[in-house]
Structure formats: structure tokens, C-alpha cells
Amino acid sequence: MSVLVNKDSKIIVQGFTGSEGTFHATQMIEYGTNVVGGVTPGKGGQLHLDKPVFNTVQDAVDKVDADTSIIFVPPAFAADAIMEAAAAGIKVIICITEGIPVADMVKVKAYIDTKDCRLVGPNCPGVITPEEAKVGIMPGFIFRKGNVGIVSKSGTLTYEAADQVVKKGYGITTAIGIGGDPIIGTTTKDAVELLMNDDDTECIVMIGEIGGQLEAEAAQWVKATGNKKPVIGFIAGQTAPKGRTMGHAGAIVGGKDDTAQAKMEILRANGIHVVESPAKIGDKVAEILG
Fold first, then answer.
1. Are 55 and 31 a contacting pair, CB within 8 Å?
2. Does residue 165 share a domain with residue 108?
3. CATH of the domain at 258
4. Positions at the binding site for CoA
5. Which of 80, 95, 125, 201 has a 20 to 30 Å separation from 183 between CA atoms?
6. For 160-214, what is each residue's pLDDT tens digit?
7. Same domain, 245 and 275
8. Helix (H, G, I), strand (E, B) or coil at 282
9. Domain count of the fold of the chain
10. Residue 275 falls within a domain, yes or no?
11. How much is the average pLDDT of 111-137?
12. Are 185 and 239 contained in the same domain?
């Protein structure tokens, strides 16, 4: 099993004919992902990468039965692209775009909460179910199918964790990069819950960072539901100065519970297996799964 995306997902690329959309769509197709077309307003009716181009997401839904979208649209237009996908009935919307104004995302979040869909991102690396579907910008070659789920705010640490897990002889069910912006569609707790309910996922790696309460909420949920599966936690930003944005727009220590040390203590208190260094993730997975 898997969560969010699999070999049967019918995926379209919004911003299909642009440079980023073209590059990453090519990689996705080469990986074996079921890309059924793309959307670029004004270029409908053309072929790009041997796939049909549509003027609107609704056209893509009507003509190729698309159910999943990945968005490579510039920040000024990305909020509209997300809402267009939601309005057209797309079930899984993955937004890679970085730098979307927070005010735009406030409107997006309010809108998608009224729709039957799930947004992953923005400012995320996407979602991958190894050997089935790569819907994002992650290096697919390091992933192997297995029984470890990954949830991460960080793109590079998603790949690092996956690489370590694979080198220890295990593999990944689905890796979800949730993104590091202040307002995102799928929270750490949402993603952990998806993997907790996946029969094939036996262990979850949860990678967080300074700023916000997402990791604490996820850890408290894990404990409240009985710690059904082992969760390994790492928090990035242990040396970050207070009050300064670090890397991601959401990575800023606003209060005493936002620091890496405070988050690690909260995770430990809720039964999460905390590692002090990202270099220890693979070792901890091997220790737990034996």
C-alpha cells in the first residue's frame, strides 16, 4: 500500500511547458510516474513531452480523468493555480512553488478546507511512493520500496533520511515533504496520521525544524492514539539564533516552545525516538526494526 500517490494516480503538471515544469515532468515520466498531461493557459491542444496540454485544470479532469496535480507556477499565480485545481475536483494537489505570499495562502487554506481535496505544500519537494510514482523534485534513484514512512519539512533531509534507510537494507512506503512555509495544506500530524493508518508502514521517520507547533501536535497525537507504531524524530535548527528566520519562511523561533531543544523534549515526552543528529536516522531505524 501507499498514501497520497501510487501507480494508478493520474497526474497533471500545472505550469507544464515552463522550464521547471518541463524539467521535472521529464524526470517524473522517466521514473515511471503516470503523467497524463499538463496545463498551460493558451497552449491547449498542443503536445508537450508527448503528453496533451490543456488550457485549464477542468479540461484535464474532463478529458483525461486527472485526479492529482503538481504545481510549478510562479509565486504570484500559484494560489490561483491551487484553487483552480481544487475547484476542478483534483483530489491531491502538490505545490512545489516557493515564495507564495502568506496573505495568498490564508485565502487558499480557507478555500480548500471547503473542498474534498488534500494540498501538500507549498514550498515542498513533493511526494514519492518508490517504484510507483514520483510527484515532485526528489532524486528518485535513492528511494527503494519498503516499510518506513517519511514525513519531513525539509526537502534535503527527506532525501538524506531515505538514503540512510535504504543503505541499512530497508525501504520506503511513501515519503511526504510537507513544506516549510508558515501556512501549508498538510501538517506534520496529518501526514503522520496517513502513514499510521497505512498497513505497510511499520515505522515512521518525522523530520521537523524550529518554529511553530506542528511537531508537538503530531507527537501528542501519536501518544494520544496509543503509540501504535514507532516514530523516529529529528528537529533541525539546534544552533539557530532566536528571532531569525532560518531557511524556511516558517523556521523562526517565536517562543520558548519553538526551539529545537524544547521540541525534542516534547517529542521524547510523547514516546518519540529522538535522534540528535540527522546522521543517526538510519541507525535508529535499523535498531527499532531489527
1. no
2. no
3. 3.40.50.261
4. 17-20, 43, 96-98
5. 201
6. 999 999 999 999 999 999 999 999 999 999 999 999 999 999 999 999 998 889 9
7. yes
8. helix
9. 2
10. yes
11. 98
12. yes
Pick from 90, 120, 150: which residue ends a domain?
A: 120
Buried b (16+ CB within 10 A) or exposed e, 144-169: bebbbbbbbbbbebbbbbbbbbbebe
* One domain, residues 187 and 105: no
**Residues of the binding site for substrate:** 159
State the catalytic residue, choosing from 24, 48, 248, 273: 248
**Mean of all residue pLDDT scores within the chain:** 94
Instruction: Give the C-alpha separation, 173 to 145, whole Å.
Output: 6
Question: What is the rounded CA–CA span in Å between residue 280 and residue 255?
Answer: 28
Q: Would residue 131 be called left, alpha or beta, if left means φ above 0 and alpha means ψ between -120 and 50 degrees?
A: left
The reported pLDDT for the residue numbered 255 is: 61
- Helix ranges restricted to H, 212-276: 214-224, 260-269
Instruction: Tell me the whole-structure pTM to 2 decimals.
Output: 0.95
Give CA–CA dist 164/286, Å, rounded: 10
Enclosing domain of residue 110? 11-120
Q: Is 248 a catalytic residue?
A: yes
Same domain, 113 and 198: no
Q: What is each CA distance from 155 to 124, 145, 220, in whole angstroms?
A: 7, 19, 24
Q: List the one residue out of 3, 9, 17, 58 whose CA is nearest residue 36.
A: 9
Tens digit of each residue's pLDDT (9 = 90 or more) over 251-286: 555 566 667 899 999 999 999 999 999 999 999 999
User: Judging by beta carbons within 10 Å of its beta carbon (0-12, 13-18, 19+), is residue 110 exposed, middle or buried?
Assistant: exposed
Beta bridge partners of 172: 148
Residue 145's pLDDT band (cuts 50, 70, 90): very high
Classify residue 3: in a domain, yes or no.
no
The predicted structure's pLDDT at residue 238: 82
More confident residue, 98 or 246: 98
Question: Given 120, 153, 172, which residue is the final one in a domain?
Answer: 120
